[in-house]
Amino acid sequence: MGSVDQKQFSVAIIGAGLAGLSLAIGLHRRGVTSHVYDAAPKFLDIGAGLSFAVNSLKALEAVDQECYELFKKRCEGMSLKKDVYMTFRDGMGDGEPVTTLYCKGSGQQAVHRTLLVKDMTKLMPENTLHMGKKLRDITKTPAGGYILDFEDDTTEEFDVVLGADGIKSRVRQILLGEDNPDSYPKFSGEFAYRDLVPMETACEVLGEEFARNGNVNMGLGGLTTSYPVEGGSMLNLVAARDAETWDHAEWVIPSDVAKIQEEFKGYGSKIQQLISLFKDPKAFALFHHPHTSTFYSGRLAIIGDAAHAATPHQGAGCGQAFEDALILCELLSDESVRAPEDVQRALAAYDAIRRPHTLRVVETSRENGAICMMKGPTTGEDWGKIKANLDKRFEWMWRVPPVADVPILHSSSTKLSLLTLVIGTTI
Ligand SMILES: Cc1cc2nc3c(=O)[nH]c(=O)nc-3n(C[C@H](O)[C@H](O)[C@H](O)COP(=O)(O)OP(=O)(O)OC[C@H]3O[C@@H](n4cnc5c(N)ncnc54)[C@H](O)[C@@H]3O)c2cc1C
After folding, report:
1. How far is CA 151 from CA 16, 119, 132, 134, in A?
2. Whose CA is nearest to atom 12 of ligand 1?
3. Which residues form the pocket of ligand 1, taking CB atoms under 6 Å from any ligand atom?
């Protein structure tokens, strides 16, 4: 299965999250048809808000203008203060500001994940999104293609398979090997309570100024993050704690306000106010993928959380997924990539461009969690050092424009050969 249009290869994408959908939409815009398979029978509303910065906007705009417009619409009216990303505060006290970070071109943007996913599915070409299809296994064909084996006992054959199946990726296990410990996510040493509350209630408790802007309250071994979502109608609440282990089989478990109060006993007044807003909290274990030796093999590759899931402390996951999608769209749609045999070269370029950058994001997100929980190895409990570190932590990630970073992607015919020069390796 899989249509071939101008290309002589067929493409399957496993997973219809933000990574898989942005990739499929971007490929479609560039004349490359793909089929997307997702395990879920339908999209469930998991009530999670995601924050973004300017690099995510630029990447999504370059992936597809229409998709970007949908996204911008959901973000309308987000922040009271222009270009303010987040204010980091002393969470052990009364929330006094330690530093405010500015992100020119976006400030703090956020969106409700499931609503954005649902919007994006409207841009998928007819009959290319297949729900209720959980990938069980992949077998290589003698011609170098792949047979996808789904849990409903059906199979499909494609020349190229791109795994966007999230942090617990089955494609990752197949790519890196089932015996390889790096195939499986690692507990980051933190978990987070999350909830969404009406902005009106949040303003009453926190004050308009605080509730309508992004804030991180830093504390000893714990922090809170709050920012408006859904055009400013809801406040996304996160309260994260460190933990030695995660002892539950499930990664998301129901919780209650009393438990959160107990966890944050002794923290400052602003954190107590924030915690009083939780109504129906869930606890999320924070896992990540700190090591990944390759993002591809043959014509099989991984993108998004399947490749580089990070802790949420730098709000980077979606932006990195969109940047992956952009680079893959540009490479796979390049006119020099026509036959199935050409694809491996494109995937090698994708790996060389994206793996070092995204693994640095995974590491910096982990470090940022430690810094904001006041246990960074070089910053500890010293607000001056914490401020100096935070002031430099985000800029490089926001200011690496995914396309400008790889200038060659502007010039399609010579894209792959010049990429070789840019990254200094032979592809
Ligand atoms: C607590 C928390 C907070 C976060 N906060 C932020 C934030 O503020 N900002 C930010 O940018 N990012 C944040 N992230 C990360 C962000 O959600 C992801 O990086 C982003 O959504 C990209 O995800 P994805 O599309 O790669 O994977 P997912 O969204 O996980 O999508 C994977 C898809 O694959 C499907 N699938 C899984 N297995 C199979 C299979 N075997 N067969 C077929 N389909 C399968 C799933 O059903 C799912 O639809 C956060 C993550 C967590 C856990």
Report:
1. 17, 27, 9, 5
2. 317
3. 14-20, 37-40, 50-52, 134-135, 164-166, 170, 192, 284, 304-306, 312, 315-319, 321
Q: Are 282 and 255 in contact (CB under 8 A)?
A: yes
pLDDT of 134-187, one tens digit each? 999 999 999 999 999 999 999 999 999 999 999 999 999 999 999 999 999 999
Beta-bridged to residue 216, according to DSSP, are 88, 225
Cα(357)–Cα(391) distance, integer angstroms:
20
Q: 128: which 2 tokens?
A: 């290319």
Q: Is 194 a catalytic residue?
A: yes
Sheet holding 11-14, edge to edge: 129-130, 34-37, 11-14, 160-163, 300-302, 296-297
Of the candidates 172, 194, 345, 354, the residue annotated as catalytic is: 194
pLDDT tens, residue by residue, 186-219: 999 999 999 989 999 999 999 999 999 999 999 9
Domains of the chain: 11-80+109-185+289-372+396-423 (3.50.50.60)
* Cβ contact 2:161 at 8 Å: no
Which residues does the chain have with pLDDT short of 70?
Answer: 1-5, 45-49, 76-80, 400-427
Write the burial class of residue 393 (CB in 10 Å: 0-12 exposed, 13-18 middle, 19+ buried): middle
CA 405 – CA 383 distance, rounded (Å): 34
- The two three-digit tokens of residue 2, written as one number: 């899989």
Amino acid at 272: Q
What six digits make up the tokens of 337?
């990539």
Phi-psi map region of 286: left, alpha, beta (phi>0 left; psi -120 to 50 alpha): beta
278 DSSP 8-state letter: -
Report the 10 Å Cβ neighbour count for 132. Answer: 13
> From ligand 1's centre to the CA of 167, what distance in Å?
7
